[in-house]
Amino acid sequence: MASHDLVIRGGTLIDGTGAPRRAADVAIDGGVVTAVGVIEGSGKREIDASGMVVAPGFVDIHTHYDGQATWEATMQPSSWHGVTTVVFGNCGVGFAPVHDADHERLVQLMEGVEDIPGTALHEGLAWDWNTLEEYLDVLDGPKDMDIAAQVPHAALRLHVMGERGAKGENAAPDDIAEMGRLAAEAVDAGFLGFTTSRTQNHKTSLGEPTPTLTAARDELVGIAEAIGATGRGVLQLVSDFTDIDAEFSLVRAMTESSGRPVSFTLVESPRGYDYHRRLLEHIENARNDGLFVTGQTAVRPIGVLLGFECTLNPFLVNPVYREIADLPQVERTEMLRDREFRARLLAAAGGKEMQAVGGRLIEKYEIMFALGEAPNYEPDPNDSILAIAERTGRPAAEVALDAMLESDGTAMLWVPFSNFGQGNLDGTRELLTHPYTVPALSDGGAHVGTICDGSFPTTLLQHWGRDRHGEKIELEFLIKRQCADTASVVGLNDRGVIAPGYRADLNVIDFDRLCVRQPELRYDLPAGGRRIVQRADGYRHTFVAGVETYCDGEATGDLPGRLVRGPQPAPTSTGA
User: Fold this and answer.
1) How far is CA 451 from CA 114, 277, 533, 534, in A?
2) What structural domains does the chain harbor?
3) pTM here?
């Protein structure tokens, strides 16, 4: 008779603690790890992991599956990349609490901030909730991974303040008290925490700033204090940090007044290394003062994808391109290959109108790269579209056009606009290896027409652990960061480690084959909405609570994932 539900044998265990890799078997029973080492007993199922890395499931704490999690059970693309837990509701945007009359406003906000088609949201969202607690109940169904939610400030502000909140007016004391009450009740009901946005980059689809942009200090501190009174919950924000000292004083005030951990978006700025190093210094000072402040950082440059099927492309406002922009993809590609049409198109390239689209990113040929079948996220600047154009004596627009016409007109270009200011990822490495940061910011489920960074966990291991030409990072460190460390930041201490008593969320990885594939467009959102997805190779098996959810990149159909309600304690015993 079998001794265990599952035994994974002969793998190279990297357990998520940062300890050196070792050969070990792993036994699983009842959804948790029960033994690690030499397993004498047999399993109802056994997996030969010889030559494979056995690692915890990845915990991605910065996603935007707020809508997708209500209408489908698979959190793809994240689940293709070894992710077994996602946290959404980040950056202050989400869909609860909500009055029935405010559905359109929240759709416009999510569409503008996170580039999720409004038509897909209108079709997919059932809106069979008003309160935060009712929204949790809707989420609480079978999934291909565990999911967790946070209270979004923008929705909360609109719900309490109405038009005044939407227009960014100052909250009155009664408003703050009510927002605090609702947020605290939601945290008690199972939300992991509270999030807000203070960046001018976040606008509705109508171009209006996010309602939380100018929220005053007393509002944010008041909500944080109310959450702190529950004795649980975390805080998250994104800010421009235009005045670093003043803005970080707000971060400190939120965690000082509440006693709760806070994390915020921290990337290498085009303004240079001084920007992120000053913020790191502030974090270090806060930690020295006993404040749990953490930077959420990216694992590769943050950039936009350009293509004829994407939201943006270099010819978007070109008057000649507009003649064919609405044609079906096959017909449009035929026209773009027509010699006479190409001549007209290239003659009309550029112009003042370009300044109004994508922050001029769609014509920044000096930092524009073809991704190809094997994307390189630390490209040589000599491989840019402009550099190729200069070497070949052709206009940059023509080089870009030909690159996008690959793969029958569906190929994409990539423009990194953050974390690539020095033409390499040395600054990103500095951020990733800092003791008070964690890899995050994948935005899984969002920016579906311009970005596909749900593949961050795969890039983290592939690029930094194996392929980088420059200084690499130990795989044990990377896995600890993406597993135990991310889980700890949001209070999910029952996962991210392979040891007795911990959740049996695991990946069996063929590390030599691990790689991200070329991004591709699909039209599988509600109402036929488009999205960019990116798959991976090398994940042999992914388990959630001991149940296999993906085998060699394909879904098994089992859905053991559930809504995680509130923080989860670490196992009290690590028995045999």
Assistant:
1) 10, 26, 9, 10
2) 4-55+503-555 (2.30.40.10), 59-301+420-489 (3.20.20.140), 305-416 (no CATH)
3) 0.96
